[in-house]
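Hi, can you check this record?
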Amino acid sequence: MKRIGLIFLISIISTAAQAQVQIENPWTRASAPGAQVAGGYMLIRNRGAAADRLVSASSPASARVELHVHVNRDGVMQMREVPGYDVPARGAFELKPGGAHLMFIDLKRPLKQGEKVPVKLKFEKAGEVSAEFQVGGAGSASPPALQHKKN
């Protein structure tokens, strides 16, 4: 009986941590035939009292998903893989073009505008959080949902 109570308590704590981390406007761009990579963008909102950290991601759309940032090295912009993104308590962290982003590596097929790409995000505290990335146009600079609102 004690074991069942412990399992129940752990599941409640895990669910509460996941509820504190919310993913808003997850999106990517349509990829050209033969393209091997694509970027992923979103807003990670942490409503919790403690900071959290996105430490990894995975998707059936690609062989692997890396966490990247753009850095300026002597006037040259370069992409670098990083071990994670810190999401402050009661704050947010934005992944956007030209900044921090997910990198889908070795795409299994081209991403087509209008489809959704499933992604699992792993956080230190919140655990695994699922998101569906909406695929926008090839040259999109903002999430598809926001593109429609502009029209």
Q: What stands out?
A: Residues 89 and 107 are 33 Å apart (CA to CA). Residues 5-17 have pLDDT under 50 and may be disordered. The longest helix spans residues 2-20.
